[in-house]
Amino acid sequence: MPVLVVGSIALDTVKTPIAEHADLLGGSASYAAVGASFFTPVNLVGVVGDDFPKAHIDYFGSRQIDLAGLQVVPGKTFRWSGEYMWDLNTRETRSVELNVFEHFNPTLPDHYKATPYLLLANIGPNLQNHVLDQMTRPRFIIADTMDLWINIALDELLRLLKRVDMLILNDGEARQLTKETSLIRAGARIRAMGPKYVVIKKGEHGSLLFGDGQFFSCGAYPLEDIHDPTGAGDTFAGGLAGYLAAHDASIPLAAQPTSASGPVDIPWNTLCKAVVQGSVLASYNVEAFSLERLRSLTEEDIRTRYEVFRTMSHFEQLA
Ligand code: AMP
């Protein structure tokens, strides 16, 4: 089943302690859509200016990404610039130029409106709500967010949380949103705000999945060389959403919605596997700048690393 992905499409300038590259393909929707496309077809919604290289659009088109929802408008593409410190974890935003993003009004083509899986990648919660308003209730709705929206658009974000099935955010954001120091408490508090499932990402320390009385902790792949952490979270969300959509057929009949459109009850083990697949894709993505590593990634690579994750988290029963 396809996934609709909406978010930012950007030209990024990224500086790490060892290299700096300008005008790279970036944006939450770019990473998320390409991530999801490893598992399932994607309907992309976003905006770029007339300066956006055609080669990037061709790249999206070369994946199973439908571009009917991509607006190309006069003006400059959204630009973001960030600098990483020595730990490659701490990041400072150096500049943000909204450009064509400032007047972005995500309008869904008719054939997108009943897309069964929805990933609201990181953009303002007002835009995320606006996309949701145009859709028939998807079978599963995932939202991503960031500290900025918790700071400046909290009411709109809280309205969104009541409408989604899963929220993905990082540890700092979870603490910021709930004022809890414990991530376990934070996960429960966020679930009480609406989403049935919450994923808290902990960067190089893995991620936590919270459900109703259910909990899963996924490790992180022990990478020696991280070149550019940008987009790890977005790739994670895309891989997770794509895997869920691709495995919709495995949802038992009893867990199907009673009405034609309505949320599905995804089996817990499928959700856990989706979190691992998201982690696998994110771990590859940070091996190179921009989306470069994803360009050469194969199904075989994904399978190989999935097995490493499985081996890493397995241990024997006590005798
Ligand atoms: P992440 O590393 O997962 O935080 O995502 C980085 C990506 O988010 C970059 O490619 C940026 O272009 C994009 N980005 C940065 N700030 C924003 C924002 N305010 N809204 C949407 N996307 C953003």
In a nutshell, what does this entry contain?
By secondary structure, the protein is of the alpha/beta class. It is 35% helix and 24% strand.
Description:
- With 319 residues, the chain is α/β, with parallel strands linked by helices.
- Helices cover 35% and strands 24% of the residues.
- The strands form two sheets. The chain has a nine-stranded mixed β-sheet, with helices on both faces. It has a four-stranded mixed β-sheet with strand order 3-2-6-7.
- A hairpin with a 6-residue loop joins strand 6 and strand 7 (91-97).
- Helix 6 packs across helix 7 and helix 8 (232-246) packs antiparallel against helix 9 (268-285).
- The radius of gyration is 18 Å and the shape is globular.
- It starts with a strand and ends in a 7-residue tail after the last helix.
- The model has no long low-confidence stretch (mean pLDDT 96).
- The site of adenosine monophosphate (AMP) has 15 residues, from strand 2 and helix 8.
